[in-house]
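Re: that chain you flagged

S.,

Sorry for the slow reply, it's been a week of failed gels. I finally had a moment to sit down with the sequence you sent. For the record, here it is as I used it:
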Amino acid sequence: MIATLILLGVAAILTTLAAPWVLPRALNRTLRHKPYPVSECAAKLHRSLVVADLHADALLWRRDLLRRSTVGHVDLPRLRAGNVAVQVFATVNTFPGAAVYHGRTYRLNLGGLQAAAQRWPLSTWRSAYARTLHQAAKLEALAKRSVGAVRIMRSARDLDEVLEARRAGAGVIGAVLAIEGATALEGEMRNVDALFSAGFRVLTITHFCDNAVGGSSNGLKRHGLTNFGRDVFARMEELSFIIDLAHASPTLIDDALECTTRPVMVSHTGLRDIWDDVRNLSDDQARAIADKGGIIGIGYWRDALGPPSLERIAETLCYGVELVGPGHMALGSDFDGGGAAPLDASELPALTEKLLRAGLDEDVIAGVMGGNAVGFLRQALPES
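Prediction finished late last night. Pasting the structure tokens below so you have them in one place:
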């Protein structure tokens, strides 16, 4: 018995030590494929684009994002190779929580275990708020070490300065901080202001579990907006803190569209007419979001697309353009979010190729690949 316990203890220690390196490689795979063909026409068009991605979880993992890696999907060299100008970096704080996923019910929060395995500060092991701030500090440190190559954007003025620098030939990438799950608020209204002051500009209201603000598409109750949530939304609108309805329950989406006055974002999702998953938007939901001036980012993983491929990404984007108009569709990769993708950030020219082959004209492609997202952010971010 004692020997068994010792072996189990050693196994637990080795697992903890290995987790920061093993998990990212196992979870954030790029599906094996031959090099994607990119015509000169598509390559030239892609070089002219302002590419933007509304959701990536790269801050969750123990990697140096200034160095090119074969692990995961996002780092600075691969973003540059993909001509990405704007990247929204999400901070995951609770996963999965009390959630229903693919028919199974989970009541386990791995957020603290993830923090402990990666040797984050002790405070992050128990606090969703602390985990959120820790990931923001990681992006701040990354931006500082990059010596201007990565700039955190907190205002429309910051965005315009990044785009002006890129027009002048600088390879700068503008980063926006997002929170994935209002669990980070820990039920405290004051934390809305505190997290905004810490540089966050997007709050994805729910992740996989319901919380004090509203219900998740994978939640146990999938309820709508709570009274506390209405107060949170009102304060967010005062601050120009962007509301993101990715992962939201249908009732929460309806409630949010009813009570908000500013356009909302759905940073990473799919469309149910392409792939029927609880995470994806119905046609009516997509139209309602677009009618309020919102933006919809299409993800690259299986639950968003069905069998993931460049063709499926292009098909979903084209369907969305036809459904809600060309000005409301965007990229929302969910890179490094624990799912396999058919490409990494460096291979985005191949998606431009697929959109050309699908028959979209160049102006529509320019919007979908980033122009729409940039226009939305310019209107939604604080002026200065």
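What I noticed first: The first strand starts at residue 51 and ends at 56.

Talk soon,
D.
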